[in-house]
């Protein structure tokens, strides 16, 4: 599930630093920046599916939750992003739960991932993010397809003005334990910042998966509105 939507998680507040410190340390972070630590809320629509989610931010870390209204597809992620001068490496962890319709029925899975994110500032305020990670996929009632994989993702955020911006993200995973597994995803978004706190985005997303003989391919149009504070 892409990072569309933001909702507060008050029960996890004890795990994070004070939100006000995040605002002081990250005054120049763009609202669509994946390393933005500010607390935020949001809603969105993926085809005919309504989704909610959010982020609880601290001085150097954040926790995010994104879910559909049914609660059967969700992503819980954690990011540690030190703000010390010259830092370029950030630690990420993620748990994803989903259900996918396949030729052999509806499969439920959990995916656990741990990675490192680097940031590069290019020409004309273009931000480039690269993540290298490893993950483990566990499929309910189809455990013979469980596998470890290496994952690489690449994201480019380009602000065109104080209001308009584009973001392009691609990622791919391939099994490293001999299993036949490949996962690929790409999405392109157009965003508009209504203010420093509010923005909307329209995204087009493509994803493809192959695990043993199971294949799945999907395309989606997404509309999302988010607010940070």
List keywords for this structure.
229 residues; mainly beta; 12-stranded antiparallel beta barrel; 1 helix; 12 strands; globular; disordered N terminus
Describe this structure in words.
About 5% of the residues lie in helices and about 60% in strands. With about 230 residues, the chain is mainly beta. The longest helix has 7 residues, at about 20-25. The chain is globular, with a radius of gyration of 17 Å. Residues about 1-25 have low confidence and may be disordered.
Secondary structure: elements and pairs:
Layout: H1 19-25, E1 40-46, E2 49-57, E3 61-68, E4 74-80, E5 89-102, E6 105-121, E7 127-139, E8 147-159, E9 164-175, E10 181-193, E11 198-211, E12 214-228
Antiparallel strand pairs: 1-2, 1-12, 2-3, 3-4, 4-5, 5-6, 6-7, 7-8, 8-9, 9-10, 10-11, 11-12
Task: Write a brief structural summary.
The protein has 229 residues and is mostly beta strands.
Fraction in beta strands: over 45%
Determine Rg (CA atoms, Å).
Answer: 17 Å
The topology string of helices and strands comes to HEEEEEEEEEEEE
Topology, number of strands: 12
**Overall residue-averaged pLDDT value:** 83
What structural class is derived from the secondary structure elements? mainly beta
Strand order of the largest sheet: 1-2-3-4-5-6-7-8-9-10-11-12
Shape category: globular
Distance between the termini: 23 Å
Helix percent reads under 10%
Helix count, per DSSP?
A: 1
């Amino acid at each position: 599930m892409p990072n569309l939507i933001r909702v507060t998680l008050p029960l996890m507040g004890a795990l994070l630093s004070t939100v006000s410190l995040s605002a002081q340390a990250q005054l120049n972070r763009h609202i669509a920046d994946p390393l933005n630590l500010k607390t935020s809320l949001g809603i969105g629509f993926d085809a005919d599916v309504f989704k909610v989610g959010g982020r609880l931010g601290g001085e150097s870390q954040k926790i995010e939750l994104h879910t559909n209204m049914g609660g059967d597809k969700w992503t819980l992620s954690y990011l540690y992003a030190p703000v010390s001068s010259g830092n370029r490496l950030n630690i990420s962890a993620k748990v994803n739960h989903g259900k996918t319709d396949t030729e052999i029925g509806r499969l439920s899975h959990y995916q656990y991932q741990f990675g490192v994110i680097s940031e590069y500032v290019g020409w004309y305020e273009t931000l480039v993010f690269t993540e290298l990670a490893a993950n483990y996929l566990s499929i309910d009632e189809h455990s013979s397809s469980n596998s470890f994989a290496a994952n690489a993702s690449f994201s480019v955020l380009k602000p065109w003005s104080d209001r308009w911006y584009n973001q392009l993200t691609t990622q791919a995973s391939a099994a490293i334990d001999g299993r036949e597994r490949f996962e690929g995803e790409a999405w392109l978004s157009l965003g508009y910042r209504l203010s420093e706190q509010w923005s909307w985005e329209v995204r087009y997303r493509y994803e493809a998966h192959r695990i043993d003989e199971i294949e799945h391919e999907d395309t989606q149009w997404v509309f999302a509105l988010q607010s940070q504070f």
